[in-house]
Specification:
- This protein is globular.
- Among the domains are: 65 residues, Orthogonal Bundle (Transferase Creatine Kinase, Chain A, domain 1); 79 residues, Ribosomal Protein S8, Chain: A, domain 1, CATH 3.30.1370.
- The N and C termini lie far apart (45 Å).
- An eight-stranded antiparallel beta sheet has the order 2-3-4-5-1-8-10-9. A two-stranded antiparallel ribbon has the order 6-7.
- A hairpin with a 5-residue loop joins strand 4 and strand 5.
- The chain has 347 residues and is α+β, with helices and mostly antiparallel strands.
- The chain binds adenosine-5'-diphosphate and citrulline.
- The site of citrulline has 11 residues, from loops.
Length: 347
């Protein structure tokens, strides 16, 4: 499907995106002529959701100003997704001491691996959908330089996608370390322009600390390891994020927290997940969904967003990221995972 952006888009009857729910014809007409200082417009913000009618959200911001200029669309979407209203203020807690998440599966029967990531973007830069080629290259070099100063367990190397052998790239993707190529939602959002230039991955020797550069957000800072030691994964992430922020100032808003290109990632920009094997519960999806919903958890497939589960293994993570602290994101995921394991044991 193509759309030239000049008139209110058509939505298919089965479209269940937040874009469709919150964009009226009147609102479209009111906002369509506005342009931010980096040249971003409403048609560009919603293009991904218009050409991908199976989008769950369907909008992207091009810069910090997008969240203000198009707030009459973004605010209701943000409230719908995160339960965060225009009078709420985001809060942060990156103190591992306030997290209580002892390994819920010390025998290693259910949890295959734990991963916690945050998205970050650079202050004074447009977000990915509106960034220029030169700005993107500048982000890459600033981030690669900052990461080269990390020491101890976090020390590693930066690997640009541009020079990477295809076999190496595919192996990293299959092993859950690297982002995929050619995501159609990102493509339509303008996030894949000039691909693969400016993109890359940094990781330490053990691949327990990784940074994606210039994918959906300029940085995705990731801590991951085998098994269910959630506290260790969180502690490593916090140590890294604090160190990186001393050299690379991040784009941050007093009300919305860390700013991201997708409104689902505002605030903490944190997704804390486990890959968990639930063969019995997983064969009764309504029952699994019911427990997940009661803990505000999202269920993804084994290769991330828009992928399927395989062999009873699910990716279970916090759904909300804004209006709750980082510790609350992880604590919520932990509490839900404990409930899921208990249910699986009793089946
Ligand atoms: P993101 O989490 O960055 O929003 P995705 O959902 O696409 O993006 O996931 C990115 C990659 O991380 C995928 O390969 C996915 O399988 C992997 N992943 C997510 N959670 C875990 C986990 N707990 N253990 C191992 N890999 C994981
Ligand atoms: C959609 O609307 O389905 C896609 N644009 C992805 C939405 C979820 N956002 C995300 O993973 N950052």
């Amino acid at each position: 499907m193509r759309w030239d952006g000049s008139s209110f888009p058509e939505f298919t009857p089965d479209n269940s995106s937040l874009l469709r729910r919150h964009l009226s014809k009147e609102l479209f007409e009111q906002l369509k002529g506005r342009v931010t200082s980096s040249g971003f417009s409403l048609p560009r913000a919603i293009y991904s959701g218009v050409v991908n009618q199976d989008s769950s959200i369907g909008v992207y911001a091009g810069d910090a100003e997008s969240y203000l200029l198009f707030s009459s669309l973004f605010d209701p979407i943000i409230e719908d997704y995160h339960g965060f209203s225009t009078t709420d203020t985001h809060r942060s807690d990156l103190n591992p001491a306030t997290l209580s998440a002892p390994n819920p599966d010390p025998a290693g029967q259910y949890i295959l691996s734990t991963r916690i990531r945050v998205g970050r973007n650079l202050a004074e830069m447009p977000l990915g959908p509106a960034i220029s080629r030169e700005q993107r290259k500048s982000v890459e070099s600033q981030v690669a330089r900052a990461l080269s100063h990390l020491g101890g367990e976090l020390a590693g190397s930066y690997y640009p996608l541009l020079n990477m052998e295809e076999a190496v790239q595919n192996r990293l993707i299959d092993d859950h370390f690297l982002f995929k190529t050619g995501d159609r939602f990102l493509e339509a959002a303008g996030l894949n322009r000039d691909w693969p230039e400016g993109r890359g991955i940094f990781h330490n020797r053990e691949k327990t600390f990784l940074v994606w550069v210039n994918e959906e957000d300029q940085l995705r800072i990731i801590s991951m390891q085998q098994g269910g030691d959630i506290e260790a994964v969180f502690t490593r992430l916090v140590t890294a994020v604090k160190q990186i922020e001393t050299t690379v100032p991040f784009l941050h808003d007093p009300r919305l927290g860390y700013l991201s290109s997708c409104p689902t990632n505002l605030g903490t920009a944190m997704r804390a997940s486990v890959h968990i094997c639930l063969p019995k519960l997983g064969s009764d999806m309504p029952a699994l969904k019911k427990i997940a919903d009661s803990h505000h958890l999202q269920i993804r497939g084994i290769h991330g967003e828009h992928s399927e589960s395989e062999s009873g293994v699910f990716d279970i993570s916090n759904r909300k990221r804004l209006g709750i602290s980082e510790v609350e994101c992880v604590q919520g995921m932990y509490n839900g995972v404990v409930a899921l394991i208990n249910k699986e044991k009793n089946l």
